[in-house]
């Protein structure tokens, strides 16, 4: 690996250890030319897939968009950033395991709603109100009633 400080091509690995629950390897390297140390990360290249939006347009999957939607839904709720990132990790892993080249945004939204319903009901309702584009109070009330029925069946 090339040194980021002096551009010499010879560096040696001083230390390697797993990170990200074993999904990546962190390596400490030292340049044999200038002696400076730096860190690199190695991880498996994930399959890129396209998200098919409601209007039929396609764009690359962006985990930050999913995370931002979850963060907005969980604002001022007792949900940690680690929990929100775990949701996105789980969704991304699930999508990668499907090995599909295209995934609908509706499917991704449904996955987010499943996770939020289990984690925080208020965040779920907030996300659902934007995701499902409630047109009036009746559709909003129907969603809350569905949430209550689901909660009763789990008890």
Considering the chains and any ligands shown, give keywords for the structure.
6 strands; 5 helices; single chain; 3-stranded mixed sheet; 3-stranded antiparallel sheet; alpha+beta; 155 residues; 47% helix
What would you note in describing this structure?
The chain is an alpha+beta fold and 155 residues long. 47% of the residues lie in helices and 21% in strands. The chain has helices at residues 63-73, 81-98, 105-119, 121-131, 137-154, and strands at residues 11-19, 24-31, 37-43, 50-52, 58-60, 102-104. The chain has a three-stranded antiparallel sheet, with no helix packed on it. A three-stranded mixed sheet has the order 5-4-6. A hairpin with a 5-residue loop joins strand 4 (50-52) and strand 5 (58-60). It starts with 10 loop residues before the first strand and ends with a helix. The mean pLDDT is 89.
The gist of it:
The chain is of the alpha+beta class.
Termini separation? 55 Å
Helix-strand category: alpha+beta
Strand content: 15-25%
Radius of gyration: 21 Å
Strand order of the largest sheet: 1-2-3
Element pattern in H and E? EEEEEHHEHHH
Query: Which term fits the overall shape?
Result: elongated
Q: For the residues shown, what is the average pLDDT?
A: 89
Low-pLDDT parts are none
Counted beta strands: 6
Total helices: the number is 5
- Proportion of residues in helical segments: 40-55%
